[in-house]
Specification:
This protein is of the alpha+beta class. The chain folds into two domains: about 15-175, Ribosomal Protein S5, domain 2 (2-Layer Sandwich); about 180-305, GHMP kinase, C-terminal domain (Alpha-Beta Plaits), CATH 3.30.70. It is about 35% helix and about 30% strand. Keywords: ATP-binding, Isoprene biosynthesis, Kinase, Nucleotide-binding, Transferase.
């Protein structure tokens, strides 16, 4: 039997789930908490770059394996550190059964790029294994399990646009009044999320800045509701951006190149290093992507739109 990724899968059934990337249109970061995390106000926006995660019955009962193809597949861990494997194991533990799964991931979301590719794969594994094993858990129940795996996993399950608080795992859906068109400039190499947060704390300490509680942005939320790309572009903000630029100074030139070529807004996505540019239309996004690639300021430039739904089954074989 062959699944939609074109890779052979074990006989006995397979489920393929498509799950989107995210961009943070607002990421407000509070001071470090006692548990090492930070309180956030994180406005997630799901975009049309997708990983496909297939879960199949394992050849060896109770075993877990993972194979990865696609964008930067060689950078994805294939051991117990893989978030999709961790998610499948966590789901089996929740069910109290000795399940197993052969997982196959086809990547189009940048790895270590600030677009929650690993969290997307975990979300995809939760949905796929829930279907494969016939558990019948609700999306809310899967989000509860996913929150223990990673702060961004619940949003990858939910999709759309949402305001995340706490570590980002507590979500409130947000109203969006239209489609937004994006360009994502991929950098050479990645950034460690933990290192970016640590650098954010260090830069604040060196500047004598005491971070207060993170706050929402009313103007940004209104721009989303109105579907106003120009207004949203003016309000894009990421408290982690100075840290990402300190760790990878070349990103400043990428952001400037996008602005010079007509982007309505430019921002480092999440912990970076992917740079996100908001445009007014699909045609403008295509032109900007071509311009960034021609300028040689990034490894590649991808176009996408948002918002889009969260993790969803796209193929199943009995």
């Amino acid at each position: 039997m062959i699944d939609v990724t074109g890779l052979p899968v074990a006989a006995g059934g397979a489920v393929t789930v498509r799950v989107p990337a995210k961009v943070n249109v607002r990421l407000a970061v509070g001071p470090p908490r006692a548990d090492g995390f930070h309180d956030l106000v994180n406005v997630f926006h799901a975009v049309s770059l997708y990983d496909d995660v297939t879960a199949a019955e394992p050849v060896e009962p109770g075993a877990y394996s993972v194979r990865v193809t696609g964008l930067s597949a060689d950078q994805v861990p294939l051991d117990g550190g893989n978030l999709a494997v961790r998610a499948a194991r966590a789901l089996a533990a929740h069910a109290g059964r000795a399940y197993g799964a052969d997982l196959q991931i086809r990547k189009a979301i940048p790895v270590a790029g600030g677009m929650a590719g690993g969290s997307a794969d975990a979300a995809g594994a939760l949905v796929a294994c829930n279907e494969l094993w016939g558990l019948g858990l609700t999306r809310e129940e899967l989000m509860e399990i996913g929150g223990d795996i990673g702060s961004d996993v619940p949003f990858a399950l939910l999709g759309g646009t949402a305001v995340g608080t706490g570590r980002g795992e507590r979500l409130a859906p947000a109203e969006v009044g239209g489609r937004f068109h994006w360009v994502f400039a991929l950098a050479e190499g990645g950034l460690s999320t933990a290192e970016v947060y640590a650098t954010c704390d260090r830069l604040r300490a060196e500047a004598g800045v005491t971070a207060g509680p993170p706050r929402a942005n009313a103007a940004l939320m209104e721009a989303l509701r109105a579907g106003d790309a120009a207004a949203l572009g003016r309000e894009l903000a990421n408290d982690l951006q100075p840290a990402a630029l300190a760790l990878m100074p070349g990103l400043a030139g990428v952001l400037a190149a996008g602005r010079e070529r007509g982007a309505l807004g430019a921002i480092v996505s999440g912990s970076g290093p992917t740079c996100a540019f908001l445009t007014g239309s699909a045609a403008e996004a295509a032109a900007l992507a071509a311009g960034l690639e021609a300028a040689g300021v990034c490894r590649a430039a991808l176009t996408a739109y948002g918002d889009v739904p969260g993790a969803a089954v796209v193929a199943a074989a009995p």
